[in-house]
Specification:
The chain is an alpha+beta fold. The chain has one domain. The protein contains five helices and four strands; from the N terminus they run αβααβαβαβ. A four-stranded antiparallel sheet has the order 1-2-4-3, with helices on one face. The chain is globular.
Length: 176
């Protein structure tokens, strides 16, 4: 067990369903992922943590090369009516854990959450973020193929096919 495993245990104690330390090289990216944000998500262009403001897939690929490890987390919820509160809870866990990891001496720690940021009612994209300590781009906004990354690391992640399906949200904190 590595010294980083304590962060996976901490994530589970904060409420995530599954957490695991992974190799950063196992994070899959794809140029197509950003298209799913642009054509299929109402958050495109509406938030500083979403495309076109978020890092591009090319930038993300280069950035991943500067990390050796990551903390991959999954938060599952059976009630789709709690979508907003669940994604908010995961964003809080990501920002809190990123800070804790940073303060432990991993100065490059950087977290990515799931889905569009909802910290503000409406994001003012004409100026700086009003919540820079909590706001983080989603994995998919940065061009990360979340499904393949999950599979690469032994997580089960399925497409939500109906309103009564299990909702699963992924997050990642890169660590070096």
């Amino acid at each position: 067990m590595s010294k980083l495993d304590r962060y996976a245990r901490r994530a589970r104690s904060l409420g995530v369903s599954k957490a695991r330390i992974i190799d950063a090289a196992s994070v899959a990216t794809g140029n197509w992922v950003r298209l799913k944000c642009q054509y299929g998500c109402g958050g495109y262009g509406a938030s500083l943590s979403c495309p076109p403001y978020s890092p591009t897939p090319e930038y993300t690929r280069a950035m991943l090369g500067e990390y050796s490890k990551g903390l991959l987390m999954q938060l599952e919820d059976t009630d789709p009516r709690r979508l907003t509160s669940t994604t908010r809870a995961l964003r809080r866990i990501v920002s809190d854990l990123e800070r804790e990891i940073f303060l432990d001496g991993f100065h490059k720690a950087f977290g990515m959450a799931s889905g569009p940021c909802e910290l503000c009612r409406a994001c003012d994209t004409s100026g700086p973020c009003k919540h820079p300590y909590q706001a983080r781009p989603s994995m998919e906004a940065c061009g990360i193929d979340v499904y393949q990354t999950a599979r690469n690391n032994g997580f089960r992640l399925e497409v939500v096919r109906s309103e009564d399906s299990l909702c699963s949200f992924m997050a990642l904190i890169l660590i070096e």
